[in-house]
Amino acid sequence: MKDELKRELASIVGSDRATDKPEHLVAYSYDAYTEEHLPELVLFPESTEEVSKIMKVAFRESVPVTPRGAGTNLAGETIPVRGGVVLCLTRMDKILSIDEQNLIAIVQPGVINMDLQKAVEKLGLMYPPDPASWAAATIGGNVATNAGGPRTLKYGVTKDYLLGLTAVLANGDVLKTGGRTIKNVTGYNLTTLLCGSEGTLAVITEITVRLVAKPRATRTIRADFQSLDDCSDAVAEIMSAGIVPAALELMARYTINAVEKAFNLGLPTDVEGILLIEVHGYPETLETEVSRIEDILRGKDVTNMITAQDDAEAERLWLARRSAGPALMRVRPNHIVEDVTVPVSQLTTMIRKALEICHNHGLEVGVFAHAGDGNLHPCIVFDRRDEDEYKRVEAACEEMVHVAMALGGTLSGEHGIGLAKAPFLSLEMDEVALRVTKGIKDLFDPTGILNPGKFV
Ligand SMILES: Cc1cc2nc3c(=O)[nH]c(=O)nc-3n(C[C@H](O)[C@H](O)[C@H](O)COP(=O)(O)OP(=O)(O)OC[C@H]3O[C@@H](n4cnc5c(N)ncnc54)[C@H](O)[C@@H]3O)c2cc1C
User: Fold this and answer.
1) Contact 68/86 with Cβ under 8 angstroms?
2) According to the model, what pLDDT value does residue 367 have?
Protein backbone atom coordinates (compact mmCIF):
# COMPACT_ATOMS: atom_id res chain seq x y z
CA MET A 1 0.00 0.00 0.00
CA LYS A 2 1.42 3.39 -0.96
CA ASP A 3 2.23 5.87 1.86
CA GLU A 4 -0.15 8.40 0.35
CA LEU A 5 -3.06 5.93 0.55
CA LYS A 6 -2.12 4.98 4.11
CA ARG A 7 -2.19 8.67 5.04
CA GLU A 8 -5.61 9.13 3.43
CA LEU A 9 -7.05 6.16 5.33
CA ALA A 10 -5.39 7.22 8.61
CA SER A 11 -6.77 10.75 8.27
CA ILE A 12 -10.33 9.35 8.53
CA VAL A 13 -9.75 8.19 12.12
CA GLY A 14 -6.84 10.45 13.12
CA SER A 15 -3.21 9.48 13.67
CA ASP A 16 -3.79 8.24 17.25
CA ARG A 17 -6.16 5.55 15.92
CA ALA A 18 -4.04 4.36 13.00
CA THR A 19 -0.74 2.53 13.00
CA ASP A 20 1.72 0.93 10.64
CA LYS A 21 4.51 0.51 13.18
CA PRO A 22 6.09 -2.93 12.62
CA GLU A 23 5.65 -3.95 16.28
CA HIS A 24 1.93 -3.09 16.09
CA LEU A 25 1.43 -4.82 12.74
CA VAL A 26 2.85 -8.03 14.25
CA ALA A 27 0.21 -7.89 17.00
CA TYR A 28 -2.54 -7.90 14.37
CA SER A 29 -0.97 -10.56 12.14
CA TYR A 30 -2.33 -13.54 14.07
CA ASP A 31 -5.26 -14.75 16.14
CA ALA A 32 -5.86 -17.90 18.21
CA TYR A 33 -5.12 -20.17 15.21
CA THR A 34 -1.60 -21.10 14.08
CA GLU A 35 -1.04 -19.07 10.90
CA GLU A 36 0.06 -15.44 10.57
CA HIS A 37 0.38 -12.71 7.96
CA LEU A 38 1.25 -9.03 8.39
CA PRO A 39 -1.29 -6.32 7.56
CA GLU A 40 0.00 -3.03 6.17
CA LEU A 41 -2.13 -0.73 8.30
CA VAL A 42 -4.35 -1.09 11.38
CA LEU A 43 -7.25 1.31 11.90
CA PHE A 44 -9.44 1.72 14.99
CA PRO A 45 -12.72 3.39 13.93
CA GLU A 46 -15.16 4.70 16.53
CA SER A 47 -18.34 5.12 14.47
CA THR A 48 -20.35 3.71 11.57
CA GLU A 49 -19.54 6.90 9.63
CA GLU A 50 -15.79 6.32 10.00
CA VAL A 51 -16.15 2.69 8.92
CA SER A 52 -18.18 3.80 5.91
CA LYS A 53 -15.56 6.38 4.88
CA ILE A 54 -12.76 3.79 5.26
CA MET A 55 -14.65 1.25 3.15
CA LYS A 56 -15.32 3.84 0.41
CA VAL A 57 -11.58 4.50 0.05
CA ALA A 58 -10.71 0.79 0.32
CA PHE A 59 -13.32 -0.02 -2.35
CA ARG A 60 -12.01 2.69 -4.67
CA GLU A 61 -8.44 1.45 -4.28
CA SER A 62 -9.20 -2.32 -4.05
CA VAL A 63 -7.51 -2.56 -0.65
CA PRO A 64 -8.20 -5.75 1.36
CA VAL A 65 -9.94 -5.07 4.69
CA THR A 66 -10.07 -7.63 7.50
CA PRO A 67 -12.55 -6.77 10.27
CA ARG A 68 -11.36 -7.81 13.72
CA GLY A 69 -12.76 -7.92 17.23
CA ALA A 70 -10.64 -9.39 20.03
CA GLY A 71 -8.88 -11.87 17.72
CA THR A 72 -9.88 -14.88 19.84
CA ASN A 73 -11.21 -16.96 16.95
CA LEU A 74 -9.67 -20.39 16.59
CA ALA A 75 -9.89 -20.80 12.81
CA GLY A 76 -7.62 -18.06 11.38
CA GLU A 77 -10.58 -15.86 10.50
CA THR A 78 -8.80 -12.57 11.20
CA ILE A 79 -5.43 -13.32 9.63
CA PRO A 80 -5.00 -10.68 6.91
CA VAL A 81 -3.68 -13.15 4.35
CA ARG A 82 -3.70 -10.54 1.55
CA GLY A 83 -2.23 -7.73 3.69
CA GLY A 84 -4.08 -4.40 3.48
CA VAL A 85 -6.02 -2.99 6.41
CA VAL A 86 -6.99 -4.65 9.67
CA LEU A 87 -10.12 -2.85 10.84
CA CYS A 88 -10.14 -3.31 14.57
CA LEU A 89 -13.56 -2.61 16.10
CA THR A 90 -12.55 -2.77 19.78
CA ARG A 91 -12.84 1.00 20.29
CA MET A 92 -16.55 0.79 19.43
CA ASP A 93 -17.24 -0.61 22.88
CA LYS A 94 -20.35 1.18 24.14
CA ILE A 95 -23.54 -0.40 25.37
CA LEU A 96 -25.86 2.13 23.74
CA SER A 97 -29.08 1.16 25.51
CA ILE A 98 -30.76 -1.53 27.58
CA ASP A 99 -34.53 -1.52 27.22
CA GLU A 100 -35.86 -3.43 30.24
CA GLN A 101 -39.47 -3.20 29.11
CA ASN A 102 -38.89 -4.74 25.68
CA LEU A 103 -35.94 -6.92 26.74
CA ILE A 104 -33.56 -5.49 24.17
CA ALA A 105 -29.99 -4.19 24.24
CA ILE A 106 -28.29 -2.16 21.54
CA VAL A 107 -24.52 -2.37 21.52
CA GLN A 108 -21.51 -1.40 19.47
CA PRO A 109 -19.53 -4.36 18.08
CA GLY A 110 -16.50 -3.96 20.36
CA VAL A 111 -18.45 -4.55 23.58
CA ILE A 112 -16.93 -7.52 25.42
CA ASN A 113 -19.42 -10.37 25.92
CA MET A 114 -18.80 -10.47 29.69
CA ASP A 115 -19.40 -6.71 30.03
CA LEU A 116 -22.80 -7.02 28.37
CA GLN A 117 -23.67 -10.02 30.52
CA LYS A 118 -22.74 -8.20 33.73
CA ALA A 119 -24.59 -5.03 32.72
CA VAL A 120 -27.87 -6.85 32.01
CA GLU A 121 -27.56 -9.15 35.03
CA LYS A 122 -27.60 -6.09 37.29
CA LEU A 123 -31.11 -5.47 35.94
CA GLY A 124 -32.28 -9.06 36.51
CA LEU A 125 -31.82 -9.96 32.83
CA MET A 126 -29.61 -12.35 30.91
CA TYR A 127 -27.89 -12.38 27.51
CA PRO A 128 -27.58 -16.16 27.00
CA PRO A 129 -24.77 -16.64 24.39
CA ASP A 130 -21.73 -17.39 26.54
CA PRO A 131 -18.63 -18.50 24.62
CA ALA A 132 -15.93 -19.74 26.99
CA SER A 133 -13.89 -16.77 25.69
CA TRP A 134 -16.53 -14.38 27.11
CA ALA A 135 -14.00 -12.37 29.11
CA ALA A 136 -12.24 -11.27 25.91
CA ALA A 137 -14.41 -11.90 22.84
CA THR A 138 -16.52 -9.06 21.44
CA ILE A 139 -20.21 -9.14 20.59
CA GLY A 140 -19.27 -8.14 17.00
CA GLY A 141 -16.98 -11.16 16.79
CA ASN A 142 -19.68 -13.34 18.37
CA VAL A 143 -22.18 -12.21 15.73
CA ALA A 144 -19.71 -12.65 12.87
CA THR A 145 -18.98 -16.22 14.04
CA ASN A 146 -22.48 -17.03 15.37
CA ALA A 147 -20.79 -18.01 18.61
CA GLY A 148 -22.23 -20.62 20.91
CA GLY A 149 -21.17 -21.69 24.37
CA PRO A 150 -22.02 -24.00 27.24
CA ARG A 151 -25.54 -22.53 27.60
CA THR A 152 -26.35 -23.27 23.93
CA LEU A 153 -28.00 -26.50 24.98
CA LYS A 154 -30.95 -24.73 26.59
CA TYR A 155 -30.85 -21.27 25.05
CA GLY A 156 -29.43 -21.54 21.54
CA VAL A 157 -26.63 -19.59 19.85
CA THR A 158 -25.94 -15.94 19.00
CA LYS A 159 -28.31 -15.86 16.01
CA ASP A 160 -31.21 -16.80 18.28
CA TYR A 161 -30.76 -13.49 20.15
CA LEU A 162 -30.10 -11.25 17.19
CA LEU A 163 -32.84 -8.80 16.21
CA GLY A 164 -31.11 -6.25 14.02
CA LEU A 165 -27.81 -4.99 12.70
CA THR A 166 -26.19 -1.94 11.21
CA ALA A 167 -23.44 -2.99 8.85
CA VAL A 168 -21.19 -1.33 6.28
CA LEU A 169 -20.89 -2.99 2.89
CA ALA A 170 -17.65 -3.27 0.93
CA ASN A 171 -18.49 -0.12 -1.08
CA GLY A 172 -19.19 1.92 2.08
CA ASP A 173 -23.01 1.76 1.90
CA VAL A 174 -24.68 1.46 5.31
CA LEU A 175 -27.12 -1.45 5.54
CA LYS A 176 -29.72 -1.70 8.30
CA THR A 177 -31.32 -5.08 8.89
CA GLY A 178 -34.07 -6.37 11.16
CA GLY A 179 -35.41 -4.17 13.92
CA ARG A 180 -36.46 -4.27 17.55
CA THR A 181 -39.25 -6.84 17.47
CA ILE A 182 -38.99 -10.55 18.16
CA LYS A 183 -41.31 -11.32 15.25
CA ASN A 184 -40.21 -9.83 11.95
CA VAL A 185 -40.69 -11.51 8.58
CA THR A 186 -40.20 -8.51 6.33
CA GLY A 187 -38.13 -9.62 3.35
CA TYR A 188 -35.14 -11.90 3.38
CA ASN A 189 -33.58 -12.40 6.79
CA LEU A 190 -30.45 -10.35 6.17
CA THR A 191 -29.67 -10.25 9.90
CA THR A 192 -29.23 -14.01 10.05
CA LEU A 193 -27.34 -13.98 6.76
CA LEU A 194 -24.71 -11.67 8.23
CA CYS A 195 -24.54 -13.73 11.42
CA GLY A 196 -21.70 -16.19 10.95
CA SER A 197 -20.41 -14.46 7.80
CA GLU A 198 -16.93 -14.09 9.36
CA GLY A 199 -16.31 -10.57 8.12
CA THR A 200 -16.65 -11.60 4.48
CA LEU A 201 -19.90 -9.76 3.70
CA ALA A 202 -19.96 -6.54 5.74
CA VAL A 203 -18.50 -4.74 8.75
CA ILE A 204 -20.99 -4.89 11.62
CA THR A 205 -21.15 -1.59 13.50
CA GLU A 206 -24.28 -1.83 15.67
CA ILE A 207 -26.10 -4.82 17.10
CA THR A 208 -29.59 -5.16 18.59
CA VAL A 209 -29.96 -8.25 20.77
CA ARG A 210 -32.79 -9.89 22.63
CA LEU A 211 -32.50 -10.47 26.36
CA VAL A 212 -34.31 -12.90 28.62
CA ALA A 213 -35.14 -12.84 32.31
CA LYS A 214 -32.29 -14.05 34.48
CA PRO A 215 -33.20 -17.50 35.82
CA ARG A 216 -34.54 -17.31 39.37
CA ALA A 217 -32.31 -20.13 40.49
CA THR A 218 -29.36 -22.09 39.09
CA ARG A 219 -27.61 -25.21 40.38
CA THR A 220 -24.29 -26.66 39.24
CA ILE A 221 -23.26 -30.29 39.67
CA ARG A 222 -19.89 -31.87 38.96
CA ALA A 223 -19.50 -35.62 38.58
CA ASP A 224 -16.22 -37.52 38.15
CA PHE A 225 -16.30 -40.75 36.13
CA GLN A 226 -14.06 -43.80 36.00
CA SER A 227 -15.26 -44.59 32.50
CA LEU A 228 -15.93 -42.40 29.47
CA ASP A 229 -18.76 -44.73 28.40
CA ASP A 230 -20.55 -44.17 31.70
CA CYS A 231 -19.98 -40.45 31.30
CA SER A 232 -21.72 -40.35 27.92
CA ASP A 233 -24.43 -42.78 29.09
CA ALA A 234 -25.17 -40.25 31.82
CA VAL A 235 -25.42 -37.48 29.21
CA ALA A 236 -27.90 -39.53 27.16
CA GLU A 237 -29.96 -40.43 30.22
CA ILE A 238 -30.15 -36.86 31.51
CA MET A 239 -31.20 -35.63 28.06
CA SER A 240 -33.92 -38.25 27.74
CA ALA A 241 -35.25 -37.68 31.27
CA GLY A 242 -37.16 -34.62 30.16
CA ILE A 243 -34.59 -32.28 31.72
CA VAL A 244 -32.96 -29.63 29.56
CA PRO A 245 -29.85 -28.53 31.44
CA ALA A 246 -28.52 -25.08 30.63
CA ALA A 247 -25.12 -26.70 30.20
CA LEU A 248 -23.74 -30.21 30.01
CA GLU A 249 -19.96 -30.05 29.64
CA LEU A 250 -17.42 -32.83 29.47
CA MET A 251 -13.67 -32.88 30.08
CA ALA A 252 -11.62 -35.99 29.34
CA ARG A 253 -8.54 -37.17 31.25
CA TYR A 254 -5.70 -35.37 29.41
CA THR A 255 -7.58 -32.06 29.71
CA ILE A 256 -8.33 -32.59 33.42
CA ASN A 257 -4.65 -33.24 34.06
CA ALA A 258 -3.60 -30.15 32.09
CA VAL A 259 -6.02 -27.93 34.05
CA GLU A 260 -4.81 -29.36 37.34
CA LYS A 261 -1.16 -28.91 36.39
CA ALA A 262 -1.67 -25.33 35.24
CA PHE A 263 -4.08 -24.02 37.87
CA ASN A 264 -4.15 -26.48 40.77
CA LEU A 265 -7.93 -26.45 41.25
CA GLY A 266 -8.16 -29.75 43.12
CA LEU A 267 -9.50 -31.85 40.23
CA PRO A 268 -9.09 -35.64 40.38
CA THR A 269 -6.34 -36.66 37.96
CA ASP A 270 -7.13 -40.39 37.92
CA VAL A 271 -10.61 -40.27 36.31
CA GLU A 272 -11.55 -40.75 32.65
CA GLY A 273 -14.01 -37.87 32.50
CA ILE A 274 -15.71 -35.06 34.37
CA LEU A 275 -19.23 -33.81 33.65
CA LEU A 276 -20.33 -30.34 34.63
CA ILE A 277 -24.07 -29.85 34.62
CA GLU A 278 -25.94 -26.60 35.18
CA VAL A 279 -29.71 -26.32 35.52
CA HIS A 280 -31.78 -23.14 35.48
CA GLY A 281 -35.34 -22.56 36.65
CA TYR A 282 -37.56 -21.68 39.57
CA PRO A 283 -36.39 -22.74 43.04
CA GLU A 284 -39.58 -24.76 43.54
CA THR A 285 -39.01 -26.99 40.50
CA LEU A 286 -35.25 -26.95 40.32
CA GLU A 287 -34.65 -29.19 43.32
CA THR A 288 -36.67 -31.96 41.64
CA GLU A 289 -34.49 -31.72 38.53
CA VAL A 290 -31.29 -31.68 40.61
CA SER A 291 -32.42 -34.80 42.52
CA ARG A 292 -33.30 -36.57 39.27
CA ILE A 293 -29.87 -35.78 37.83
CA GLU A 294 -28.13 -36.88 41.02
CA ASP A 295 -30.07 -40.18 40.89
CA ILE A 296 -28.97 -40.76 37.29
CA LEU A 297 -25.36 -40.03 38.20
CA ARG A 298 -25.45 -42.34 41.24
CA GLY A 299 -26.48 -45.15 38.91
CA LYS A 300 -23.21 -44.74 37.00
CA ASP A 301 -19.59 -45.38 37.81
CA VAL A 302 -19.19 -42.00 39.53
CA THR A 303 -16.27 -41.64 41.94
CA ASN A 304 -17.31 -38.27 43.30
CA MET A 305 -20.21 -35.86 42.92
CA ILE A 306 -20.39 -32.24 44.08
CA THR A 307 -23.56 -30.13 43.99
CA ALA A 308 -22.62 -26.50 44.52
CA GLN A 309 -24.36 -24.95 47.50
CA ASP A 310 -23.93 -21.33 46.47
CA ASP A 311 -22.84 -19.11 43.56
CA ALA A 312 -19.23 -18.94 44.74
CA GLU A 313 -18.94 -22.74 44.78
CA ALA A 314 -20.64 -22.99 41.37
CA GLU A 315 -18.16 -20.44 40.00
CA ARG A 316 -15.28 -22.53 41.37
CA LEU A 317 -16.65 -25.60 39.58
CA TRP A 318 -17.03 -23.62 36.35
CA LEU A 319 -13.50 -22.25 36.61
CA ALA A 320 -12.16 -25.73 35.85
CA ARG A 321 -14.14 -25.91 32.59
CA ARG A 322 -13.29 -22.34 31.57
CA SER A 323 -9.62 -23.12 32.21
CA ALA A 324 -9.57 -26.10 29.83
CA GLY A 325 -8.51 -24.10 26.74
CA PRO A 326 -5.97 -21.86 28.51
CA ALA A 327 -4.48 -24.88 30.37
CA LEU A 328 -3.99 -26.93 27.19
CA MET A 329 -2.49 -23.91 25.47
CA ARG A 330 0.33 -23.98 28.06
CA VAL A 331 1.34 -27.59 27.42
CA ARG A 332 3.18 -27.00 24.12
CA PRO A 333 3.95 -23.82 22.13
CA ASN A 334 0.99 -24.27 19.75
CA HIS A 335 -2.47 -25.76 19.72
CA ILE A 336 -5.35 -26.36 17.34
CA VAL A 337 -8.81 -26.64 18.85
CA GLU A 338 -10.91 -28.87 16.58
CA ASP A 339 -14.61 -28.10 16.50
CA VAL A 340 -16.26 -31.04 14.79
CA THR A 341 -19.82 -31.70 15.91
CA VAL A 342 -21.76 -34.95 15.71
CA PRO A 343 -25.23 -36.15 16.67
CA VAL A 344 -25.22 -36.58 20.48
CA SER A 345 -25.58 -40.35 20.18
CA GLN A 346 -22.21 -40.43 18.34
CA LEU A 347 -20.29 -38.35 20.87
CA THR A 348 -18.36 -41.17 22.56
CA THR A 349 -17.54 -42.76 19.20
CA MET A 350 -16.20 -39.41 17.98
CA ILE A 351 -14.18 -38.86 21.16
CA ARG A 352 -12.63 -42.32 20.93
CA LYS A 353 -11.89 -41.84 17.22
CA ALA A 354 -10.26 -38.46 17.89
CA LEU A 355 -8.04 -40.00 20.59
CA GLU A 356 -7.17 -42.93 18.32
CA ILE A 357 -6.35 -40.71 15.32
CA CYS A 358 -4.06 -38.49 17.39
CA HIS A 359 -2.45 -41.50 19.04
CA ASN A 360 -1.75 -43.04 15.61
CA HIS A 361 -0.04 -39.82 14.54
CA GLY A 362 1.99 -39.64 17.75
CA LEU A 363 0.23 -36.44 18.87
CA GLU A 364 -0.90 -35.19 22.28
CA VAL A 365 -4.57 -34.22 22.48
CA GLY A 366 -6.89 -32.99 25.22
CA VAL A 367 -10.61 -33.42 24.62
CA PHE A 368 -13.38 -31.31 26.07
CA ALA A 369 -16.91 -31.03 24.75
CA HIS A 370 -20.25 -29.33 24.94
CA ALA A 371 -21.53 -32.87 25.44
CA GLY A 372 -25.22 -32.08 25.38
CA ASP A 373 -25.09 -30.82 21.79
CA GLY A 374 -22.41 -33.14 20.42
CA ASN A 375 -19.90 -30.31 19.93
CA LEU A 376 -16.46 -31.71 20.52
CA HIS A 377 -13.14 -29.88 20.99
CA PRO A 378 -10.14 -32.16 20.59
CA CYS A 379 -7.27 -29.73 21.30
CA ILE A 380 -4.03 -30.93 19.71
CA VAL A 381 -0.93 -29.44 21.31
CA PHE A 382 2.29 -29.30 19.30
CA ASP A 383 5.28 -27.22 18.22
CA ARG A 384 4.65 -25.36 14.95
CA ARG A 385 8.41 -25.10 14.33
CA ASP A 386 8.56 -28.87 13.91
CA GLU A 387 7.42 -29.27 10.29
CA ASP A 388 7.01 -33.03 10.56
CA GLU A 389 4.85 -32.70 13.67
CA TYR A 390 2.74 -30.00 12.02
CA LYS A 391 2.14 -32.22 8.97
CA ARG A 392 0.87 -34.93 11.35
CA VAL A 393 -1.40 -32.37 13.06
CA GLU A 394 -2.88 -31.40 9.69
CA ALA A 395 -3.38 -35.04 8.76
CA ALA A 396 -5.08 -35.76 12.10
CA CYS A 397 -7.44 -32.78 11.72
CA GLU A 398 -8.38 -33.91 8.22
CA GLU A 399 -9.08 -37.44 9.44
CA MET A 400 -11.26 -36.13 12.28
CA VAL A 401 -13.27 -34.05 9.83
CA HIS A 402 -13.90 -37.10 7.65
CA VAL A 403 -14.94 -39.20 10.64
CA ALA A 404 -17.32 -36.48 11.86
CA MET A 405 -18.92 -36.22 8.42
CA ALA A 406 -19.28 -40.01 8.22
CA LEU A 407 -21.02 -39.94 11.62
CA GLY A 408 -23.56 -37.44 10.30
CA GLY A 409 -21.85 -34.39 11.80
CA THR A 410 -20.65 -30.98 10.66
CA LEU A 411 -17.24 -29.35 10.05
CA SER A 412 -17.73 -26.73 12.71
CA GLY A 413 -20.22 -26.40 15.55
CA GLU A 414 -19.23 -22.89 16.61
CA HIS A 415 -15.69 -21.79 15.75
CA GLY A 416 -16.31 -21.19 12.06
CA ILE A 417 -14.52 -21.92 8.82
CA GLY A 418 -11.79 -19.25 8.40
CA LEU A 419 -8.57 -20.74 7.05
CA ALA A 420 -8.76 -23.89 9.17
CA LYS A 421 -11.81 -25.51 7.58
CA ALA A 422 -11.83 -23.84 4.15
CA PRO A 423 -10.23 -26.85 2.39
CA PHE A 424 -13.07 -29.09 3.61
CA LEU A 425 -16.07 -26.93 2.72
CA SER A 426 -17.10 -29.08 -0.23
CA LEU A 427 -17.46 -32.10 2.08
CA GLU A 428 -20.53 -30.42 3.56
CA MET A 429 -21.73 -27.97 0.89
CA ASP A 430 -22.57 -29.31 -2.55
CA GLU A 431 -21.95 -27.51 -5.83
CA VAL A 432 -25.30 -25.71 -5.69
CA ALA A 433 -24.79 -24.49 -2.12
CA LEU A 434 -21.27 -23.27 -2.98
CA ARG A 435 -22.58 -21.46 -6.08
CA VAL A 436 -25.29 -19.68 -4.07
CA THR A 437 -22.71 -18.76 -1.39
CA LYS A 438 -20.42 -17.27 -4.05
CA GLY A 439 -23.36 -15.34 -5.52
CA ILE A 440 -24.16 -13.80 -2.12
CA LYS A 441 -20.51 -12.84 -1.65
CA ASP A 442 -20.43 -11.19 -5.10
CA LEU A 443 -23.54 -9.18 -4.29
CA PHE A 444 -22.23 -7.84 -0.98
CA ASP A 445 -18.59 -7.51 -1.94
CA PRO A 446 -18.23 -7.52 -5.76
CA THR A 447 -14.48 -6.90 -5.80
CA GLY A 448 -13.68 -9.29 -2.96
CA ILE A 449 -11.97 -6.85 -0.59
CA LEU A 450 -13.67 -7.98 2.64
CA ASN A 451 -11.64 -10.56 4.53
CA PRO A 452 -10.25 -12.07 1.31
CA GLY A 453 -8.60 -15.48 1.10
CA LYS A 454 -11.03 -17.07 3.51
CA PHE A 455 -13.81 -19.55 2.95
CA VAL A 456 -15.63 -17.81 0.10
C1 LIG B 1 -10.14 -19.93 25.15
C2 LIG B 1 -11.16 -19.79 24.05
C3 LIG B 1 -12.43 -20.29 24.25
C4 LIG B 1 -13.40 -20.17 23.23
N5 LIG B 1 -14.65 -20.65 23.46
C6 LIG B 1 -15.60 -20.50 22.52
C7 LIG B 1 -16.93 -20.99 22.75
O8 LIG B 1 -17.26 -21.52 23.80
N9 LIG B 1 -17.85 -20.82 21.76
C10 LIG B 1 -17.53 -20.20 20.58
O11 LIG B 1 -18.41 -20.06 19.72
N12 LIG B 1 -16.27 -19.75 20.33
C13 LIG B 1 -15.32 -19.88 21.28
N14 LIG B 1 -14.05 -19.40 21.03
C15 LIG B 1 -13.74 -18.78 19.72
C16 LIG B 1 -13.92 -17.24 19.70
O17 LIG B 1 -13.79 -16.69 20.99
C18 LIG B 1 -15.27 -16.85 19.09
O19 LIG B 1 -15.27 -17.19 17.72
C20 LIG B 1 -15.61 -15.36 19.22
O21 LIG B 1 -16.93 -15.16 18.77
C22 LIG B 1 -14.67 -14.44 18.44
O23 LIG B 1 -14.87 -13.11 18.91
P24 LIG B 1 -13.71 -12.02 18.69
O25 LIG B 1 -14.21 -10.71 19.18
O26 LIG B 1 -12.45 -12.49 19.26
O27 LIG B 1 -13.65 -12.00 17.11
P28 LIG B 1 -12.36 -12.13 16.10
O29 LIG B 1 -11.61 -13.34 16.47
O30 LIG B 1 -11.62 -10.83 16.20
O31 LIG B 1 -13.08 -12.26 14.75
C32 LIG B 1 -13.78 -13.41 14.42
C33 LIG B 1 -14.44 -13.24 13.04
O34 LIG B 1 -15.41 -12.22 13.12
C35 LIG B 1 -15.13 -11.18 12.18
N36 LIG B 1 -15.50 -9.93 12.85
C37 LIG B 1 -15.16 -9.53 14.09
N38 LIG B 1 -15.77 -8.36 14.36
C39 LIG B 1 -16.51 -8.05 13.27
C40 LIG B 1 -17.37 -6.98 12.93
N41 LIG B 1 -17.62 -5.98 13.78
N42 LIG B 1 -17.95 -6.96 11.71
C43 LIG B 1 -17.75 -7.98 10.83
N44 LIG B 1 -16.95 -9.02 11.10
C45 LIG B 1 -16.35 -9.05 12.31
C46 LIG B 1 -13.67 -11.30 11.84
O47 LIG B 1 -13.38 -10.83 10.55
C48 LIG B 1 -13.50 -12.81 11.93
O49 LIG B 1 -13.90 -13.40 10.73
C50 LIG B 1 -13.07 -19.52 22.01
C51 LIG B 1 -11.77 -19.02 21.82
C52 LIG B 1 -10.83 -19.15 22.83
C53 LIG B 1 -9.46 -18.58 22.59
Assistant:
1) yes
2) 96
